[in-house]
Amino acid sequence: MINIVLPVDFGDKTEQLVEGAIKFAKQLGAKINLIHVAPMEIGFAIGDMGYQYFPEIEENEIREELVLLNKINQRILSQDVDCEHLLKQGVAKDIILEYADDKNADYIVMGSHGRSGIYDVFVGSLTKGITRDSKIPVLVLPIHE
């Protein structure tokens, strides 16, 4: 079976990305391996006492993200595309590439918002990093307003 890794961030363009991945998976008869990578610093806040860690904030955020991930997983399954999902915390690029390797993925499907230049200098681009470092093909879907 052909395996597709689909990283999602729950941003406003996730819907478009998921639809494109479903279409691609149907064309190939592929399985989607859905992944969301939560940042390590979810439970940290800065206040009068400096950085503080609030495990309850992290737990609530992870729980909410898992609910969102489950909804996307169910939506993909409802389109007659086999799907499984994983939520992990850490450095997104590294975890996505490791997951693709673990799943023997044939493709990684990512979205591109069309940002470049100064944005990439300060924020970086996950899609750009995955495309540069991946050993397997990366399908980049244009995600527009």
From TrEMBL:
Record keyword Cytoplasm present: yes
| Cytoplasm as UniProt keyword | yes
What keyword terms does UniProt attach to this protein?
Cytoplasm
- Secretion signal: which residues? none
Q: Which InterPro entries match?
A: Rossmann-like_a/b/a_fold, Universal_stress_UspA, UspA
One Pfam family per UniProt: Usp
Every UspA domain range: 3-142
- Compartments where found: Cytoplasm
Q: Which family does it belong to?
A: Belongs to the universal stress protein A family.
Q: What is this protein called?
A: Universal stress protein
Native source species: Chryseobacterium caseinilyticum
